[in-house]
Design goal:
The complex is a heterodimer. Chain A is mainly α. Chain A has twelve helices and two strands. In chain B, helix 3 packs antiparallel against helix 6, helix 7 runs antiparallel to helix 8 and helix 8 packs across helix 9. The model of chain B has no long low-confidence stretch (mean pLDDT about 85). Classes of the chains: A mainly alpha, B mainly alpha. The interface between A and B is large, with 71 and 75 residues.
Chain lengths: ~300, ~200
């Protein structure tokens, strides 16, 4: 998901950099205020940990393998604001030391993976987990949050590429979204597996990541920033098709009959056959189905990883 | 692949390029990248000039050419992947070419920068540019312990491999997750010790 140099136009890169800078500034201020000095080295070590953990291979199929991204894992382990700092450090080091991700695209990469991903992850995680969540609920929340964060970050990346006129919107959105819905499942399962082991080995480390009183404040701030970042890139597309809503409504009428006709083999093919008619609708459908699948996977893995009465 | 990516990109040398102050090198590299990004899509002569300049600088720095090419090859695939999407749109060939050229030039420039400049020197530059102290501290600590943690991870994996005979996919996932989790536990324990050591040496927040 690291955008290289030469793929974004100046405007997009600048807007992304400003929003990312704002997000990181909020996170830095939050960390400085709420983090005891004793835990400052932990942020550096956690950043090194995320980088090292990204090198671990998880075999998928036919010799390919996936790896962790780690935004939500960091979120759960060190808290949301610290996670933003951790991911920022990871991305800056990858950019300046390993030429992974462009310098002019650094702002966009930071926005996607260091601001939007932890922000979305944190909002989903804290909402799902509730205030008195047990281990199973914590794992479920973290897994689903990891999936959401991966998907939303990839969509933001797709939006930036499309906004720069590099690749057409109708192509890059389903491509990135589709791929990352699957990658997100891997991210969810890995995040849950890792958290389950940490919970067994050192349960107090999981509680340490929970922010104290200021939680609600920063949750709102992060949520707003993530929304702002998304809107900045997605809004132009919405406004460039003013009759988009009517169009969708019309297609929805179609869709009702279309799905009825295809009722039996619904999943993939029905969605695909609609794709020709209305890319937007089929994207929404695919997104809905993907979300349900991701939630179900998170639920099953969380059940499998926790003892019967935990 | 794993090892190569994590191997420190800096290659020690005594060429004039190595001896330039990091500030200048970072500035020039950023200027080149920005210039390449801003150039119009079909400015091929300009691309040629910049390409020749980068190659000349690379030769002048006397860094191992194989190393440079290897690093370039490691970061290039994603750029090619996105650029291929551009091929699918009408008249995308020119766009594809320009994107590949642009990203390759920028990557080459950054690879050369990191091969001739220590990361700690770059951190000094960031520090002097008033990047927030917390971020610089985090980066410095991260860079310092990255290789320590990576070695630790490799030791854990080796220990695990030497005790495992059946490696199904599920068990591979479990053991990788276990390694990651224990790596975090050890990292946080190390962070406590690092904090005490930092305090003992007069560090103030």
């Amino acid at each position: 998901m690291h955008i290289p140099d030469g793929f974004l136009d100046l405007q997009t890169a600048a807007v992304a950099a400003v929003v990312a800078g704002l997000g990181i500034a909020v996170a830095l201020r939050d960390v400085k205020r709420n983090l005891p000095p004793r835990r400052v080295p932990l942020i550096g070590l956690a950043a090194a940990f995320v980088f090292a953990a990204q090198m671990l291979n998880f075999p998928v199929a036919a010799g390919t393998s996936g790896h962790l991204i780690g935004a939500v894992l960091a979120c759960v382990l060190v808290g949301p604001a610290a996670a933003v700092v951790v991911m920022t450090a990871v991305l800056v080091l990858q950019c300046l030391m390993f030429a992974d991700g462009g310098v002019t695209a650094l702002g966009a990469n930071l926005l996607n993976m260091a601001v939007i991903a932890p922000a979305v992850g944190h909002v989903v995680y804290s909402t799902l987990k509730g205030s008195t969540g047990g281990l199973r609920r914590t794992l479920l929340a973290a897994g689903f949050a990891a999936w959401c964060a991966t998907l939303v970050a990839s969509l933001a990346c797709a939006a930036q590429l499309a906004a720069s006129g590099t690749v057409p919107w109708s192509l890059v959105l389903p491509a990135m979204g589709g791929v990352h819905m699957v990658i997100g499942l891997g991210e969810a399962v890995i995040t849950m597996l890792v958290l389950a082991v940490v919970a067994r080995a050192r349960p107090e480390l999981l509680r340490a990541g929970e922010p104290a009183a200021a939680a609600i404040n920063s949750t709102t701030a992060f949520g707003l920033l993530a929304a702002l970042g998304l809107v900045a890139f997605v809004a132009p597309f919405a406004s460039s098709m003013p009759d988009g809503l009517e169009h969708v409504a019309e297609k929805l009428g179609f869709a009702a009959s279309a799905t009825a006709a295809h009722a039996a083999p619904l999943p993939d093919y029905a969605v695909m056959s609609l794709a020709g008619d209305s890319p937007l609708l089929s994207t929404v459908l695919a997104g809905g189905i993907g979300t349900l699948v991701a939630f179900a996977v998170a639920w099953f893995v969380a059940r499998a990883l926790t003892p019967a009465h935990a | 692949m794993l090892r190569d990516r994590l191997l420190s990109p800096y290659q020690h040398g005594s060429s004039p390029l190595h001896r330039w102050p990091a500030r200048t090198k970072l500035g020039v590299a950023l200027a080149i990248v920005l210039l390449v990004v801003l150039l119009p899509r079909n400015a091929y002569p300009a691309y040629g000039v910049i390409g020749v300049a980068i190659v000349a600088a690379a030769l002048w720095s006397r860094v191992s050419r194989g190393q440079l090419l290897l690093r370039l090859a490691l970061v290039e695939p994603f750029a090619l992947g996105i650029a291929t999407l551009a091929l699918l749109r009408p008249g995308g060939t020119e766009l594809f070419l320009s994107m590949v050229i642009k990203s390759t030039l920028c990557l080459a420039c950054m690879v050369l920068l990191t091969a001739t400049t220590r990361f700690t020197d770059l951190l000094q530059v960031l520090w002097r540019l008033h990047v927030p102290a917390l971020l610089v501290t985090t980066l410095a600590l991260m860079h310092r312990y990255l290789f320590v943690l990576f070695d630790e991870m490799e030791r854990m994996q080796r220990a695990r491999r030497s005790r495992t005979f059946v490696a199904g996919k599920a068990s591979a996932w479990r053991s990788s997750a276990q390694v990651a989790a224990l790596l975090f536990v050890r990292a946080s324990e190390r962070a406590e010790r690092v904090y005490l050591a930092m305090c003992a040496r007069g560090w103030r927040n």
